[in-house]
UniProtKB/TrEMBL annotation:
The lineage of its organism: Bacteria, Bacillati, Actinomycetota, Actinomycetes, Kitasatosporales. Residues 26-83 form the HTH lysR-type domain. Keywords: DNA-binding, Transcription, Transcription regulation. Pfam families: HTH_1, LysR_substrate. The keyword Lipoprotein does not apply. The keyword Transcription applies. Residues 1-23 are annotated as: Disordered. This is HTH lysR-type domain-containing protein.
């Protein structure tokens, strides 16, 4: 597995505090609350994973901060994130959580360790549904005690990302808080249904394409630069737009115009590919993991499952 860290040199370790901490004041269980919050970035989500109220998570993390005498979390644009010392503490605390999981497995009489807890995955709506979902379901079948949450949205990641453990994004995110890997490329092309082509004709050149209504994302609400229509079809503006790729697909099937669609979503439709030699948009899908979640066994399992899924179905992503 080839990982990409934004900095060429290893990330500097946070400066260790020289303050004295009485270990008798530290509660190991409080460290589990910090870990849960670090993975989700949300008090409510962390509370659901731990089976408690969100006020309990807030109270226990605050108690841990008082015991240590340092700020471990800070509020970001999309939730709570770890401070540098908070990241170091959570890494050291991970062995406690793993030890508890091993005890649970031993008591349950399991020979091999099972995965527990909650993992949140963020992905574009189309790719998340078609590729992430089957991969995540397979992992869940093997580890029924694992809870998986899939959030679908076509957006960029924040510079201080939170609210997920693992994300799939179009393009290449830039954040020192993420470990990234190029997962795959995929193709977008022009598609239309037979009824539309019968009524309005098939464009034979890119110039003729300008006479037809396009179906794509809402430009003013688009958060992914790689999907900017101006980059791929300069001077053209969609006549039907939606933030949801499945709405775009449905509009194309209904004959509203010519859709700019991922090839993998059209495999099981009757849509016709147009101007394939002239318009063949290829974009990367990047897998991104928050640094504090990289070593989490469940995240690693989902990571491997996603790699397997795209490898097995490469012909759908990049059809000949």
């Amino acid at each position: 597995m080839r990982l990409h860290f934004p900095d060429e040199n290893p990330a500097p370790q946070p400066a260790r505090s020289h303050r004295s901490v009485d270990p008798r004041r530290l509660r190991a269980d409080d460290l589990r609350y910090l870990l849960a919050l670090s993975r989700t970035g949300r008090l409510v989500t962390a509370a659901d994973a731990l089976g408690v109220d969100h006020t309990t998570v807030s109270r226990r993390v605050a108690a841990l901060e008082r015991s240590i005498g340092l700020r471990l979390i800070e509020r970001g644009a999309e939730g709570w994130t770890l401070t540098d010392i908070g990241r170091a503490v959570s890494e050291d605390a991970r062995v406690i959580e793993e030890a508890i999981d091993r005890v649970v497995d031993t008591v349950a009489g399991q020979d091999s360790p099972s995965l527990h807890g909650t993992v949140r995955v963020s992905a574009p709506d189309g790719f998340g549904t078609a590729f992430a979902t089957p991969a995540l379901v397979r992992v869940r079948r093997r580890h029924p005690r694992l809870q998986v949450e899939l959030i679908t949205a076509t957006r960029q990641l924040a510079l201080r990302p939170s609210g997920f453990d693992l994300a799939l994004v179009i393009g290449v995110p830039s954040s020192s808080r993420l470990v990234t890997e190029h997962l795959t490329d995929y193709t977008l092309g022009l598609y239309a249904c037979d009824d539309y082509l019968t009524q309005y004709g098939r464009p034979r050149t890119v110039a003729e394409l300008r006479e037809h209504p396009l179906i794509f994302y809402i430009e003013s609400m688009l958060q992914v630069g790689d999907l900017d229509i101006e980059r791929h079809l300069p001077g053209m503006t969609p006549a039907f737009s939606s933030t949801n790729v499945f709405a775009q697909l449905e509009a194309t099937q209904q004959g509203a115009g010519i859709g700019v669609l991922p090839a993998f979503l059209t495999q099981r439709t009757q849509l016709r590919r147009l101007l394939a030699d002239e318009i063949d948009i290829r974009l990367p899908i990047t897998l991104a993991v928050r640094r504090e979640a990289v070593t989490h066994p469940a995240v690693r399992a989902l990571w491997a499952a996603l790699q397997h899924e795209v490898a097995e179905r490469a012909d759908e992503l990049m059809p000949e």
